[in-house]
């Protein structure tokens, strides 16, 4: 998991260096809002995989849905890392809480 968080950190640093200048509060806001944009892409891929839009037909496959879900996960991890330097610990703690709450 350390390698995953290393990659997340590299992406966060790249965004910090390459994104248009913004106030720190706006950066946090924009990174969280990006999760919603990525979710929209999952929804679009899902509609396409199901052929739910008669105008577009089967425009996507399930692999597209999987890729878009990965993008949501990574985007959320970058947003969490932007908010908290100890993002890996925050995720571990929350995941442990959710597993305990589910009783599994």
Describe the structure in your own words.
This protein is 79% helix and 0% strand. With 104 residues, the protein is mainly alpha-helical. The two termini are 21 Å apart.
Question: Would you summarize the structure shown here?
Answer:
The protein is an all-alpha fold and 104 residues long. It has helices at 2-18, 24-50, 62-83, 87-102. The protein is 79% helix and 0% strand.
List the SSEs and their pairings:
Layout: H1 2-18, H2 24-50, H3 62-83, H4 87-102
Helix pairs in contact: 1-3, 2-3
**Rg, alpha carbons:** 16 Å
Helix/strand-derived class? mainly alpha
Count up the helices: 4
Largest sheet report:
none
* Approximate shape: globular
What structural keywords apply?
4 helices, globular, 104 residues, mainly alpha
